[in-house]
Design brief:
Oligomer: heterodimer
Mean pLDDT of chain B: 84
Largest sheet of chain B: 9 strands, mixed
Low-confidence stretches of chain B: 1-53, 281-315
Number of strands of chain B: 44
Strand content of chain B: 25-35%
Low-confidence stretches of chain A: 1-44, 161-167
Shape of chain A: extended
Structural class of chain B: alpha+beta
Strand content of chain A: 35-45%
Helix content of chain A: 10-25%
Shape of chain B: globular
Number of helices of chain A: 3
Order of helices and strands of chain A: HHHEEEEEEEEEEEEE
Largest interface: A-B, 86 and 116 residues
Structural class of chain A: mainly beta
C-alpha cells in the first residue's frame, strides 16, 4: 500500500497545509507528527517544471493571514548554493499592505548558505495583498542572477478573489468563454 | 489634431469648469505656491539662485497628483521635429512633490519633463497610492519650477497623437486648461492643494478641483488606474470630441464629490456647487448670490446646451434627457424582412416622449417615416416598420427624447442598408499584427522604447455577426494576412482568437487562456461594421498597452506574443517532420499570474511552469511578467514536448543554471534551455522582472565555461545540445547536426522505452546510434562538459560532483544476491530543500528473470539519526510501486514483480522533503529477496 498521496499533499505542497486531509494525516501519523512538530517553514510547490532563475530557495513561517491593523513579524529564509558573491533582497507591496524590515536584506554568500530575514507586515483594511520579493545575486565576476518570490496576505475573515471586469467576458456562440481585447483597427475600402 | 470648439459636450464641460467667474478673477499666472524650490519663490515659483543664460538655469519640478513623495524627474530637450531628445538632467526623491535638479541646466527652449515613481495621498479616498508616471512640456528660458500633473500629462498625450511634442506648447496645454476652466499656465502654476479662500487663488483652486475630479473618476472606476483614466480622456479627446459617455462620467464624478463634501463650511463644496450649477443652469445651494439668468437653448441639433456662463439661478428643470442609445436595427433590410423592420432603444428615461424619423439615401432630407410615443420603460423595441416602399440604399434612423419640461435630448442615430436584390459576397481581408517588446540582451530588461510590430502568424480569424455567430473563418498566413468571404450589406465584426489550430498533415491546437477567468480564451476584437457592397480591408493590431511608465491599456499583444514563440518553435519541427502531430496544448497567462504559491484560479502560480499538461506563464506587472520573455515561453514548451512527444522522468522543482541537480531534472531543464535558443534562433536566454520590467538576467548558451559541469548540470546539458545543433564551432564543438538527429533521438523507441531513466547518458547513447560516424565528436563534446560515462547507464562515469556515493550512477542489485549500498545526500542541495538536488536520490538496477514475489528492504547502515528511507520502483521510467512508510531507518516492501528490468530510486525522505534535522547524508543497504 503506497502512502504517496499523503506525502504528496503534505510534503511536497507544504504551502497548502490545509490540504492535508484527515484520512491522509492518519495514514502517516508518525511521520507527519515529526514533520509538523518540527517544521518551521513553508516551501514552494516542487511538483512542476519551473523556469530557471537564481539558485535561491525561499521558505517562510507565514500562515498567510493577518488581522486588520495587527502587525505580524514573519521570518523569511533564503537558502542558496553559491560559494561567493552577494544576495540582495528588495520588496514591493500592494497598496495598503505595509512592511518594514528589521534588518537590511543584503548577505555575503561566503558566510553561510542559509539567510534569515524578519519582516513586519500589517494592513489596516481587509482584503488580499501581495508582497513581492526580488532576490538578486551578484556573482564575483559581476553576473547577476535573479528570482522573484511572492507572498499572499489575506487580511480579515473574508477571502477575496481576483475578479475580472465582467464587461470583458463574453460567451462564444459555441458556449466557450472569451475575454475580448480591443484591437487597433484600420479600415480601407 | 484640433479640439473642436463647437462640440456641445465639450462646451458643456468647459462651462462646467468656468469657475473663475464665480470666485473672482484669476491672475492667470498663478499665486504663491505650496512647494517652493530651495530658496523660496512666488508666482510661478522660479528656483532661486543662478540667473540662467550661459551658466544655465536653476530648475525644479513639482510632481503633483496629490504632492508625490519619493518620486523622480528627468528633463529632456525637444528637438526641431518635436521629438524627445537628450536628457538634460535628472533628480530624485521628491519631498511633497518638489524635486530640485542638482545642477543648472544650460539649455534654452522647449523641454519634456518626465516624472515617475513615488506615492501620494489620494484627495478622494485618503489612501496613499503609487503615483502614475506623468509628463509636461514647457519652455525653459529662465529659472523655472515646472508643474507635472495629470493635466500636463493629458496635454502631452494629445501632442503625441500628432507626433509633435511642441504642439503641447502651442495648443494642448491651453486646450486642457480651457477644458478644465483654468486660465493660467498648467505647466508652471501650482494647484492649490489647500483650497485657500483668497479669491486671488481661484485659478489655482480650479487646478486642484480638476485633479480631485480625476481622483474621483479613478475611485468610481475600480478597474482603471489613474494612468488609465488619463489615457482614456486623452484618447477620447483625440478626435476633438469628448464622448457623451465620458462627459457623463465626469458629471457623475462631480456630483459624487459634491454629495460627499462638507456643505456647512467647505470652500471646496462651494466650488463644486458652482460647477454643477454651471452645468445644470441652477445654482446650488440655494443661498447662492449670483443671480445671472441661464441662457440655455437648443443648438442646431436640437440639443440643450448647458449654461456656459455662470451660476444660473433658475430653478426649473433644464436638464435634457441623456444616456440613451439605439441598437439592433434590422440589417440588412432585404426583400424578406422589409415589411418588419425594427430597432431597440436602451436607457430611455420613462415618462419622456420619444420621436424617431427614418431617412433614405434615395430620398434626401425628407423623412420617410416618423413616429412618437411615451416611454414606458427604459429599454424597449420598435418593430413592424414597413419599408417596402423605400428604395434600396442607406437607411438612417434618428431618435431623440423630450422630457416633461420640453428639454430635448441629443439625437442618436443608427444606420443600415436596404438591398432587395440577391445578396452577393464581398471579401474582407487584412493583416493581423501585435506589439513585440524586445529585451535588452545585456540586462534582460524589457526595452519598451524599441517595441516593434510583428505579424500574428497562424492564428484563427473569424468574421462574426452582431450576435457573435461565426460567418466565416480562416487562419493567418506567415505574414499575418487573412481573407474572408462574407455576405454584402451585413454587419460584421472581425475577431482574432488567441489560438493556432492546424489539421493538415502536420497538426497542432494551441490556445492562450486566462486561468483566473474560468479558462476563457483571449480574443482580439474589431468593430461591428457593415460590409456594404465592395471588398474592404480591415487590419487589426494588438497593442502592448504600455503607456510609457506603466501599462495603461489592455495588454492585447501578450497572448499573441506568446503564441508566436510557439509558432516559431513548432515550425522548426515541422520543417524536419512534415507529419508531426502536436497534441493539444493550453497555455494559461493572466495579468494576475504572480510569484506567490497558492490557488491557480486566483493567479498564484509561483513561477512560469509546465504542469499537468499545460503551461502557466507569469503576467504580474512590476513583479514578474513572461509574455515577452521568449526563451522562458519556449523553455516551458520544451517540457511539453518531452511530456507529450518524447519522454521525461524529471521530478521537476526549482532549479538554476549552476545547481547540481538530479540527473533527470538536469537533462529536462537543459533541454528546455537549449530548445529556447534553437527554436528562436537566438542563443541568449533572457528573463525580465521587477519594477517597470526593468531588471532581468541573461545567459549566453554559446558560453561553455561555467562553475558546474557534469551529468548533473543543466548548463552542461544545454551546452551539449545547443552545440550539437548550431553551426558555430568553438573548441570541442565541431558538430552542426541541426535539429533532425536530436529530434529523432528523442522520439526513438529505444529512448522512450529504455529501462534507464532519462539523462544526458541515455540521450547521448541514443544519439551515437543515430550518427555513428560522429561518435568521436560527440564524445569530445561530452568530455568538454565533464560527462565521462557512456551507455544509457553512464557506465564508467568518474565525475561524482563532490559526492562519492553517487557513483556508479546505477548500482546493480540482484534477487537473493548481496545487498548494495545506496545513499541520500544533502551535500549538493539547499538547507531544508534537497528535493531535486544531486545525490539526494540514488538508483539501482534490478533484473527479474521471471514473475515472482519479492521482499525489498532498505535499512540504514550509516548517516544521520532518524532517517526515513523510502523507494520507488520504475519500469521504463514509469512508476510501478512506491513505498513510503513512515518507518524509522528502514523501509520494506512485499509484492510481486513480473519478469523485466527495473530501476529502484532510494532516498531519505528526511533529506529530500523534510530535512528538519539538517541531515547531511544517510546510507542504506538495499536487498531483494525472493519469497
Amino acid at each position: 500500500m503506497t502512502l504517496f498521496k499523503a506525502r504528496q499533499a503534505c510534503g511536497f505542497l507544504l504551502i497548502s497545509l490545509a490540504a492535508c486531509t484527515q484520512e491522509n494525516t492518519s495514514e502517516t501519523s508518525s511521520n507527519m507528527d515529526i514533520a509538523e512538530g518540527e517544521r518551521t517553514t513553508v516551501s514552494p510547490d516542487n511538483s512542476a517544471y519551473q523556469k530557471p532563475g537564481a539558485s535561491v530557495r525561499f521558505s517562510h513561517d507565514f500562515d498567510g493571514r493577518l488581522e486588520p491593523g495587527q502587525p505580524e513579524t514573519i521570518s523569511l529564509v533564503f537558502a542558496e548554493a553559491y560559494q561567493a558573491g552577494s544576495l540582495s533582497l528588495s520588496f514591493t507591496a500592494d497598496d495598503g499592505l505595509e512592511y518594514s524590515l528589521i534588518e537590511a536584506g543584503v548577505f555575503d554568500l561566503q558566510s553561510a548558505s542559509r539567510h534569515g530575514l524578519d519582516i513586519e507586515l500589517s494592513a489596516l483594511n481587509p482584503g488580499r495583498y501581495y508582497l513581492r520579493i526580488f532576490a538578486e545575486v551578484i556573482l564575483p565576476q559581476g553576473r547577476p542572477d535573479r528570482r522573484v518570490f511572492g507572498l499572499v496576505a489575506e487580511v480579515g475573515n473574508e477571502e477575496s478573489k481576483t475578479e475580472v471586469d465582467s464587461q470583458t467576458m463574453e460567451k462564444d456562440f459555441r458556449g466557450g468563454d472569451l475575454i475580448t481585447m480591443p484591437a487597433e483597427e484600420t479600415l480601407k475600402k | 489634431m484640433q479640439i473642436n470648439p463647437l462640440n456641445h459636450r465639450l462646451l458643456a464641460l468647459t462651462g462646467l469648469f468656468l469657475l473663475a467667474s464665480c470666485g473672482g478673477s484669476s491672475s492667470g499666472s498663478g499665486g504663491s505656491g505650496t512647494n517652493t524650490p530651495s530658496g523660496g519663490g512666488s508666482g510661478s515659483n522660479p528656483p532661486s539662485g543662478g540667473s540662467g543664460g550661459s551658466t544655465g538655469y536653476e530648475v525644479a519640478a513639482n510632481f503633483i497628483k496629490g504632492p508625490v513623495s519619493a518620486g523622480s524627474c528627468e528633463v529632456f530637450e525637444i528637438d526641431a521635429d518635436g521629438i524627445k531628445g537628450d536628457s538634460l538632467g535628472a533628480a530624485g526623491n521628491s519631498v511633497d512633490g518638489l524635486v530640485n535638479f542638482p545642477s543648472p541646466i544650460n539649455y534654452n527652449g522647449s523641454v519634456l519633463i518626465e516624472c515617475r515613481g513615488g506615492t501620494y495621498r489620494d484627495e478622494v479616498t485618503g489612501i496613499t497610492l503609487d503615483s502614475p508616471g506623468m509628463r509636461a512640456v514647457s519652455t525653459l528660458d529662465s529659472n523655472k519650477s515646472f508643474v507635472v500633473s495629470p493635466l500636463t500629462e493629458l496635454a502631452v498625450q494629445l501632442a503625441e497623437f500628432e507626433n509633435d511634442l511642441d504642439s503641447a506648447l502651442t495648443t494642448h496645454n491651453s486646450t486642457i486648461a480651457d477644458l478644465f476652466g483654468i486660465q493660467g499656465d498648467i505647466t508652471v502654476m501650482l494647484p492649490n492643494v489647500s483650497l485657500e479662500t483668497d479669491v486671488e487663488e481661484a485659478d489655482r483652486n480650479q487646478y486642484f478641483l480638476a485633479l480631485t475630479l480625476i481622483s474621483q473618476l479613478d475611485a468610481s472606476n475600480s478597474s482603471a488606474s489613474v494612468g488609465e483614466i488619463i489615457s482614456g480622456i486623452a484618447s477620447d479627446l483625440e478626435d476633438g470630441d469628448l464622448s457623451i459617455a465620458r462627459s457623463d462620467e465626469i458629471i457623475a464624478a462631480l456630483e459624487t464629490l459634491s454629495a460627499d463634501a462638507d456643505s456647512s463650511s467647505s470652500q471646496f463644496y462651494n466650488y463644486l456647487q458652482s460647477a454643477l450649477a454651471d452645468y445644470y443652469g441652477s445654482e446650488q445651494p440655494s443661498d447662492a448670490t449670483d443671480d445671472n439668468s441661464s441662457d440655455n437653448g437648443d443648438d442646431s441639433n436640437g440639443v440643450v446646451t448647458p449654461d456656459n456662463n455662470d451660476g444660473g439661478g433658475v430653478a426649473d428643470d433644464l436638464s435634457a434627457p441623456i444616456g440613451y442609445s439605439l441598437s439592433g436595427l434590422t440589417s440588412p433590410i432585404t426583400a424578406e424582412n422589409q415589411e418588419n423592420v425594427g430597432f431597440n432603444v436602451v436607457g430611455a428615461e420613462p415618462g419622456t416622449i420619444y420621436s424617431y424619423s427614418i431617412y433614405s439615401s434615395g430620398n434626401g432630407d425628407t423623412a420617410l417615416m416618423q413616429g412618437t410615443d411615451s416611454v414606458i420603460s427604459s429599454d424597449f423595441s420598435i418593430t413592424g416598420l414597413d419599408l417596402s416602399g423605400v428604395e434600396d440604399g442607406l437607411i438612417e434612423v434618428e431618435f431623440y427624447l423630450t422630457d416633461a419640461a420640453s428639454n430635448v435630448g441629443g439625437v442618436v442615430t443608427e444606420r443600415t442598408t436596404k438591398y432587395t436584390g440577391v445578396l452577393g459576397n464581398v471579401i474582407i481581408s487584412g493583416t493581423v499584427t501585435f506589439d513585440r517588446v524586445p529585451a535588452d540582451t545585456t540586462t534582460g530588461a524589457l526595452d519598451y522604447d524599441n517595441t516593434y510590430v510583428e505579424p500574428a502568424r497562424g492564428v484563427t480569424v473569424e468574421a462574426v455577426n452582431s450576435s457573435g455567430v461565426e460567418l466565416a473563418s480562416t487562419v493567418t498566413d506567415a505574414s499575418g494576412n487573412y481573407s474572408l468571404e462574407v455576405t454584402e450589406y451585413t454587419d460584421v465584426r472581425i475577431r482574432v482568437l488567441a489560438e493556432m489550430i492546424n489539421n493538415q498533415t502536420a497538426s497542432w491546437d494551441v490556445s492562450i487562456r486566462d486561468n483566473t477567468s474560468a479558462n476563457a480564451m483571449y480574443v482580439l476584437q474589431g468593430g461591428l461594421i457593415n460590409t456594404e457592397s465592395s471588398n474592404s480591408i480591415r487590419d487589426l493590431h494588438a497593442a502592448s498597452g504600455w503607456g510609457g511608465f506603466e501599462y495603461t491599456g489592455t495588454r492585447s499583444a501578450a497572448p499573441f506574443a506568446i503564441l508566436d514563440n510557439i509558432y516559431s518553435v513548432m515550425a522548426k519541427f515541422v520543417s524536419i517532420d512534415g507529419d508531426i502531430d502536436f497534441p493539444a496544448l493550453d497555455i494559461f497567462w493572466s495579468i494576475n499570474n504572480n510569484t506567490a504559491d497558492g490557488s491557480i484560479s486566483i493567479g498564484d502560480i509561483g513561477s512560469s511552469r509546465y504542469s499537468n499538461g499545460a503551461i502557466y506563464l507569469l503576467g504580474d506587472e512590476d513583479g514578474d511578467t513572461d509574455e515577452y520573455d521568449d526563451h522562458v515561453v519556449v523553455h516551458e514548451w520544451g517540457h511539453y514536448f518531452e511530456d507529450k512527444l518524447s519522454r521525461s522522468d524529471s521530478i521537476g522543482g526549482p532549479h538554476a543554471f549552476d545547481d547540481l541537480l538530479d540527473m533527470r531534472v538536469a537533462f529536462s531543464e537543459g533541454w528546455g534551455n537549449a530548445l529556447s535558443a534553437i527554436g528562436l534562433d537566438h542563443p541568449v536566454y533572457f528573463d525580465s522582472s521587477g519594477v517597470y520590467q526593468g531588471f532581468g538576467f541573461t545567459i549566453d548558451l554559446e558560453e561553455n565555461d561555467f562553475p558546474t559541469k557534469g551529468w548533473y548540470s543543466e548548463s552542461s546539458v544545454q551546452s551539449i545540445i545547443y552545440d550539437l545543433y548550431d553551426s558555430d564551432n568553438d573548441g570541442s564543438d565541431t558538430l552542426e547536426l541541426g535539429l533532425l538527429p536530436i529530434y529523432q533521438t528523442l522520439l526513438d523507441p529505444g529512448y522512450i522505452n529504455s529501462d534507464y531513466l532519462t539523462s544526458v547518458f541515455l540521450f547521448l547513447d541514443m544519439l551515437r546510434i543515430k550518427v555513428p560516424s560522429l561518435s568521436t565528436n560527440i564524445d569530445s563534446l561530452a568530455l568538454s562538459q565533464a560527462v565521462y560515462g557512456i551507455g544509457q547507464d553512464g557506465a564508467g562515469e568518474i565525475n561524482d560532483g563532490g559526492i562519492v556515493a553517487t557513483l556508479p550512477v546505477y548500482k546493480t542489485v540482484t534477487v537473493d544476491g548481496a545487498s548494495v549500498e545506496l545513499c541520500s545526500s544533502a551535500e549538493a542541495g539547499f538547507a531544508q530543500d534537497n528535493y531535486n538536488s544531486h545525490g539526494a536520490r540514488d538508483f539501482a538496477y534490478l533484473k527479474i528473470a521471471f514473475n515472482q514475489n519479492l521482499e525489498i528492504d532498505v535499512s540504514k547502515v550509516s548517516g544521520s539519526s532518524g532517517s526515513d528511507p523510502d523507494f520507488i520502483i520504475y519500469t521504463q521510467g514509469s512508476e510501478r510501486f512506491r513505498s513510503e512508510e513512515a518507518g524509522l531507518d528502514q523501509e520494506t516492501w512485499n509484492g510481486s514483480l513480473t519478469a523485466g528490468n527495473y530501476i529502484l530510486e532510494v532516498y531519505d525522505w528526511e533529506i529530500t522533503d523534510n530535512d528538519v534535522s539538517g541531515s547531511q547524508a544517510s546510507c542504506f543497504d538495499l536487498s531483494v529477496t525472493s519469497e
